[in-house]
Records
---
Amino acid sequence: MRKQLFSFMMLLAWVLACPAMANTSMSGDDDEEDPMEVFVGKQFTDLKLNDFAGQPHQLSEYVGKGRWVLIDFWASWCGPCREELPELVKVWKAYHAAGFDVVGISLDDKTQAWQKAVQKLNLSWTHLSDLKGWESKAVEVYRVWGIPANLLVDPKGKIVASNIGMEELADTLDKVL
């Protein structure tokens, strides 16, 4: 609890110190600025995170390998994430065989909560985390200011969209697959 409070206080201090970010949306709404949008049009940045067994994996094992990939930032304790994930499951089931994958990057800090949520929600794709919550390397590298958040990456590893909604994701996959 202390660590989460400290992380929140650090984030709050940063937002207050950077007024331009105070007006930035964490939801990715079209009418508000998306801090992850700066990555659109660029190659993804590789990260090393662990799977459930604690085994390290590079993001590049899954991204830029000929499939469309949604990098999904979430956590078991995030209500909006848990609301959106059943829709992502539907999209994954509809397009997985055609060349679509998801890599879930969890901002959890407890392995059991993370694993339990994945199992309960039937999330059949790859899951990675460093179990550092908001101190995760993924948060820093990809400017994750709120969750749920995501990046859509093309088969060559280029980021083509950030914080895409599930309906727009399905429409995009209809066009490209």
Note: The longest strand covers residues 68-74.
---
Amino acid sequence: MSEETQHRPQPAPDKKSGRSSSIYIYLAILFGAAFLMLLLAYFVQRRNNATIQADLRTTTASKDELLETIQRLERENLDLVEQNEALSVQLGGLQEERDDLEKQMDELRERHAELTDDFSDQYKKVQGWLNFWELEEHFLSRDYKACAHFLQTLANAGSLNLPDSDSALARMREIHDTLVDRGYLADDDSTEWLRLFGAPESAEPEQQG
């Protein structure tokens, strides 16, 4: 190459061409940034969707468990209602049985009172005859002292069990009079003796002329 060629001035660079290249580079950068933003938004959206789906699955499972719990509680409630009805029926039966038992107890109390009164009456009758036979035994054996003591003991008791028989009472009065005549009993309380042997309380001892 000649020296003249080397020292030839170079043409100035085209300003319009350089400006276009800068625009393309800027646009490429913008598109790259936009792509990155879209890609980032995609992953964020995907992550959010996954979280939402997990929450939905959890919520669905919770709802199913809640429904199962509600159904179980409803079944238990129905069972409790049936048990309550059965217990109410049993309670009604027990109350009827209690009323019957109370009625029977009242009847038994009345019967017991009647039997007690009857036993008391029978006891008095038996004791009265025992007293009579003991007095008769002492008198027939001529043990007048024991006979008088026995009669005096009966009188001092204030409430005698005497035989329910007019003839037996008459015999006891006869024994009493005999003991008075023989001096084994004093004749200063004849009214009391007559009352004990069945004579009216208004009866007065005979006046001696």
Note: The two ends are 211 Å apart (CA to CA).
---
Amino acid sequence: MGVPISQAWTVAWHVVKQRVAGRQRYPLVLMLEPLLRCNLACAGCGKIQYPAHVLRRALTVEQCLAAVEECGAPIVSIPGGEPLLYPHIGELVAALTRRGKYVYLCTNALLLKEKLETGVFTPSKRLSFSVHLDGLRDDHDASVCRDGVYDIAVEAIREALRQGFRVTTNTTLFNTSEPMRVRDFFDAMMDLDVEGMMVSPGYNYAKAPDQDSFLERERTQELFSVVLGGKKKRWRFNQSPLFLQFLMGKRAFDCTPWGNPLYTIFGWQRPCYLLQEGYAPTFRALMDETDWEAFGRASGNPQCQHCMVHCGFEPTAVHATFATWRGLRDAAVATATGRL
């Protein structure tokens, strides 16, 4: 299992409380983006295409913590940009874990070993480094447009594990991904002994330099059916098995973009991490004033037709797991047997 029992129980209890309260829309993971600046220029990401004056901006720790309290999600993911460039990242993570939040710090790991050597972070069951790796050495270095990044990241993973930190990986697949190489990559990550892996198809950010490598829905299902078909039992995923079945085309889920809301330097991004349809000043305004019916595949919105990304559909899968006995049974069987 790629998720600790204590964390799974925290999420399950959060879902149960929301259901008892009669809430149909509620957050599971807050995506907290303290800055947009990055030390890589990946072809499939549009974050650093912002003007220089925007990239210099950052949230204060106080703004970050206020957003966390306002949202109330049990898990906080800190993406970017590159969050290790945030000067207060150690202070922020410590404050979040003291508040009982489970934190996933999403990093390309270029600065991770340096941060570990200077003692910025303390090992905790509530902190996991989610290291971005898009495949084996050649595949990953091509994806991030810089040679040598894979080796730096792997060395940082080894050091983090040696110091007792939780480490997961975060992998984005594109239409150039070769299924057998992805499976070899999964073996390599298990050989490193990371806690679990997260995998998702890429979304075609309008500002991304490479617009030709994004997957359409049918191709996504074909790719993941091969990658995850005959799944090896030793592979541990830091994801709901129901979401992985969805990627393979075995389940039909609707998007629940409110499950992983994003707070950034501009405010609460509508409607989700992937689309920018304006910003709300408060979390309550995001939830109450966003026209949620205008998004998702069923809406007919052309921007949503091929999206199968984790931030929209993983919350749906988690809800399906803990909100019904059938979902809980199916997830338990998949976890116990290792089969999808």
Note: The first helix runs from residue 5 to 20.
---
Amino acid sequence: MAIVTKAVKGTQDILPSEVYKNQFLEQTMLDIAGKFGFREIRTPVFEHTELFQRGVGETTDVVQKEMYTFDDKGGRSITLRPEGTAGAARAFLEHGLFNEALPQKFCYVLNCYRYEKPQAGRWREFQQFGVEMLGAAAPAADAEIISLANEIFAFLGVEGLQLEINSIGCPECRKNYHKALREYFEARKDELCPTCLGRLEKNPMRILDCKSPVCKEIAKDAPAIIDYICEDCSAHFESVKKYLDKMNIEYVVNPRIVRGLDYYTRTVFEFVSTEIGAQGTVCGGGRYDGLLEELGGPHTPSLGFAMGTGRLLMLMQAQGIELPKPNGCDIYIATMGEQASYEAAALTADLRAGGISAQTDVVGRSLKAQMKYADKIGAKYTAVLGDDEIAAGILKVKNMDSGETKELAVSDFADSFMEFMLREETAALGESLGGELDGVDLSAILGDIK
């Protein structure tokens, strides 16, 4: 019997105490992508299975071993998305975006699902940030996509990543390469795993991506595709490298990169770290010039990348990179008595309308218990509201760090508290800079806040 109070194997809960890291990371990625002209797209969490079979490739590990596929109540084969590109390409075709100005630039943050062995940095449900540029054939597009990923890592302060690039050519120049691979693997086919034995005729390049230690060892001495690419693909790759050189983006050519999905052509790349175990690829992507045609659309040269946010957070934690925590509770209004509870509800509503994070008791605790709770949630200021405060029309606000207090009128408490808090924080900032800030136009700042 399943244990209903335990998460399914390969999934994880992201608790309120940690989720701010994901939120910051995701928003940062979307903001940086926005500077490059990418706009967010949101696609369904499940698609027709054939989309991934045709797009990702029937001979890939993803399709053969890892997809969550089921028949819905209408008898249709449905799959939870294992990656984001196929869904974005489908949306591009379905909504006729190929008739719009090209390239179309998408970015997204989404959950993906793959049934694989859970390990450090790899889950069966995982969050992925990705970008897609549809309708761009020039090498400059390849370099721009890579520079976008590079800028994200630079902004976050991530160090020690190595950019590895390769060209896997086009379908035409891959024919000779496939022939060379078949000849190489044919001599050792008795040692291949059953899955790779089936790939030998259909798509021998997939053997290079096999996770089996035996197949990995055999593949080490296999021919390199960089030696088989055609003149056009070679010129494209050389141009990509020239752009990266001009942009001062360091890279190494790794002729063993093929990426795990069949839709890739020409440029492929990975940002790799040695600090998060064997699964060291933090970001991977490349060009997929034939995908849109494979899905029944017009020829649309395209490219993109994806990075797992969980794996990136692991790397940032290993490097001691701290992410800014969100603002906590600005003020907690403790109450004594029923009438005070009603008044506090009105006051906190006014404060929140003004952009202040305000809380009050909603449990019926004693005053002592309320103050303990305010301390636990890290309230910057507290106030106690009872019958005497209501009668006097005055509420005493306490700075929980300094212990200093300030009396404010209840009648315009929200506005008065916002001005008071801003003055306190301005003074604190002045002290941290070595002296009070003179000549600061608080009225202008307060006008913006209000």
Note: The two ends are 56 Å apart (CA to CA).
